TrEMBL record:
The keyword Hydrolase does not apply. It comes from the Eukaryota. One of its GO terms (cellular component) is plasma membrane. PANTHER family: CHOLINE TRANSPORTER-LIKE (SLC FAMILY 44) (PTHR12385), CHOLINE TRANSPORTER-LIKE PROTEIN 3 (PTHR12385:SF13). GO terms for molecular function: transmembrane transporter activity. It is found in: Cell membrane; Membrane. The chain crosses the membrane at residues 18-40, 204-225, 232-253, 273-294, 315-339, 520-541, 547-564. Keywords: Membrane, Transmembrane, Transmembrane helix. This is Choline transporter-like protein. Choline transporter.
């Protein structure tokens, strides 16, 4: 097919992969339905703010529940949960047996009588008896003993995360802590993770901004690349990898030997830290080995980025391309997390005997959560695919232009219009293939966690997961060339992929060694952003250990940091890949004569020739002893 094709940017196009675009629209219709259902049925504030026995969430206004007379109260000024029987709590699945109220402040001193309760309410405005009992009736109502806390009321102070009044009396505290630990441990992992995300939301936002700053610095540095910056980047990456690995091992040792580790969340932190430390150590060893092997190709990498920077200089708006991608990703991630939090707390409030309220989880929430998670991967990959197609289209427009000093007007806007008018379905299909490879890896990790006791099964699943991850990386690189081919010929994804494979297969010897180290330097840039963002997260989250599954939010921060760095640095990656594909097409379809002159400029042609001569020279030196001596033994010097 590729031999008969003219390989010029198509002027007259048609829509490609329309069925895939319709499928994506139907999938998003399902996401919209789940989002609306989660907003109506969920209440994320219950995870952190806490609520009383009558269905009122502390610290906010509430809506009444049918059958519960004391529900629907305004608790804006009452932010703490107080248990009437805090010294003798018991768990009656899945809730605590004692009646709980929302109060404005916790009693700092011991209250021994109803008169002390009445005086505390009048002086502090914090009512420790049931809402229906008036302050003046504390001492005269015959049912006050049942409607007020068990006397004496021990002194207590508010707990920072769950906003509970924790008794300070040693006996009451030990009983209260054991019940609270049991309650948190009985929560499923999903709810513990959500609680950790909500509790550390300010830190997560701050670390995301830090990752954005690192990504912007790297983009500007790669635009004006110099040899000193290459060496500085490599030194920083080596330092960051060693330092982060050391900190992870130290934190794992510190957590494992901490005698106060009782909560399930803290035990999960220890497990995750061990996994992070092992993974970080392996990545460090692999990257250090690659840096040592490829250290002599630094001059060619500098020249490569100068050529890419020259192309970006002709299309300066390419540097702003990641900004709108980043903004769209941020808006989508905020929407996704908000829906996830609402979905995790989706439940119906039902009144029980005595006017109390219980929240019962709805059926089918687990399936909705998995559907929502697939939506996160597919939509994120779709947004990144759109960016790749826009950059590839702009580079193709400028490459196949005879007058290099006078580039076409507005190539980025032209590429965006072509994408939205004709090729959204192609971006959907390419992102779906990435998603299909991501989901089995996640399922394998989940099965590996279930079969944690069986070592053979665990090693098998780990090998399968690594193989799927390798396939995903290869497919992502393959998709970029398919998008570039679509930008040139206007063909669908499968046809473009086949044409790109044919071209690259015939020119792989010329181009593979050239782009290898450029991609490796961009990978080091991404590792730099992730390393220092994760290090900041380790220092920030380590100060909030209590009752937080902070290692999972840290993983979320690392994932966001990688996506941000990939979104920004992919400008150089996609530009280089599109440039080399256009170069291969140019060399194959033209011969440099007056009838078929080359589109390539002299600097790129010289760079490719010098790089190929270096590679051929090395291959010749490696095979020369065997050519001189047929028996395969090395010749001795005279």
């Amino acid at each position: 097919v590729s031999e008969l094709r003219e390989w010029r940017p198509a002027v007259y196009r048609k829509c490609t992969d329309i069925l895939w675009l319709l499928l994506f629209c139907l999938f998003w219709a399902g996401l919209v339905f789940i989002s609306g259902y989660a907003v109506v049925a969920g209440a994320a504030e219950r995870l952190v703010l806490g609520y009383d026995s009558f269905g009122n969430i502390c610290g906010r206004k509430n809506t009444p529940v049918e059958g519960a007379n004391l529900s629907g109260l305004d608790m804006t000024n009452k932010k703490y949960v107080f248990f009437l029987n805090s010294c003798s709590l018991e768990i009656q699945s899945p809730k605590i047996s004692s009646l709980s109220l929302c109060v404005s402040s916790c009693p700092q001193q011991q209250l021994n009588s109803l008169e002390d309760l009445q005086s505390f309410a009048r002086n502090n405005g914090s009512f420790l008896c049931v809402y229906s009992l008036n302050v003046s009736s504390y001492t005269v109502n015959p049912n006050a003993a049942q409607l007020c806390p068990t006397l004496p009321v021990p002194p207590s102070k508010s707990f920072p995360l769950f906003n509970r009044c924790v008794p300070q009396n040693p006996e009451c505290y030990s009983k209260y802590a054991s019940v609270l630990i049991s309650m948190v441990n009985e929560m499923d992992v999903f709810h513990r993770i959500l609680s950790g995300i909500l509790a550390g939301r300010d830190t997560v936002i701050g670390l995301s901004v830090l990752a954005l700053a690192f990504s912007l610095i790297l983009v500007l540095a790669f635009r004006f690349i110099q040899t000193l910056f290459i060496h500085t980047l490599i030194a920083l990456v080596v330092f960051g990898l060693l330092f982060v690995s050391g900190v992870l091992w130290w934190l794992h040792y510190d957590y494992r030997n901490d005698p106060s580790t009782e909560l399930e969340t803290e035990k999960e932190n220890v497990k995750f830290l061990l996994g992070y430390a092992i993974f970080s150590t392996i990545i460090t060893v692999v990257l250090l080995s690659l840096i040592f092997v490829l250290r002599k190709r630094l001059p060619f990498s500098v020249q490569l980025f100068r050529i890419v920077g020259k192309i970006i200089g002709r299309i300066p708006f390419l540097l702003f391309q990641p900004l709108w991608t980043f903004l769209i990703l941020i808006v989508f991630w905020v929407f996704w997390v908000a829906v996830l939090l609402s979905l995790g707390t989706a439940g119906t409030a039902q009144a029980t005997s005595g006017g109390q309220v219980e929240y019962r989880a709805l059926s089918g929430i687990c399936y909705m959560a998995w559907y929502h998670f697939v939506g996160l991967i597919w939509t994120s990959e779709f947004i990144l695919s759109c960016q790749q197609m826009v950059i590839a289209g702009a580079v193709v427009t400028c490459y196949f232009n005879r007058n290099k000093n006078n580039p076409p007007p507005h190539p980025v806007l032209s590429s965006i219009s072509v994408l939205f008018c004709y090729h959204l379905g192609t971006a959907v299909k390419g992102s779906f293939l990435i998603t299909v490879l991501r989901i089995p890896r996640i399922v394998l990790l989940h099965l590996c966690n279930i079969l944690n006791q069986k070592k053979n099964a665990k090693h098998l699943f780990s090998c399968c997961s690594c193989w799927v991850c390798f396939q995903k990386s290869c497919l992502r690189h393959f998709n970029q060339h398919a998008y570039t081919t679509t930008a040139i010929n206007g063909t669908n994804f499968c046809t473009s992929a086949k044409d790109a494979v044919c071209i690259l297969a015939r020119n792989s010897a010329k181009l593979a060694s050239i782009s290898c180290f450029g991609d490796f330097l961009l990978l080091l840039g991404k590792v730099f952003v992730v390393c220092f963002t994760v290090f900041g997260g380790l220092m920030a989250f380590n100060y909030h250990r209590e009752l937080q599954a902070w290692v999972v939010p840290l993983l979320l921060v690392g994932f966001f940091a990688y996506l941000m760095s990939h979104s920004f640095l992919s400008v150089f990656e996609v530009t280089a890949d599109a440039m080399f594909l256009c170069f291969a097409i140019d060399m194959e379809t033209n011969d440099g004569t007056a009838e078929k002159p080359y589109f390539v400029d002299q600097e790129l042609l010289t760079f490719v020739s010098q790089s190929n001569k270096l590679t051929e020279g090395r291959n010749h030196r490696n095979t020369r002893p065997f050519q001189d001596n047929e028996d395969g033994t090395e010749l001795q010097p005279m």
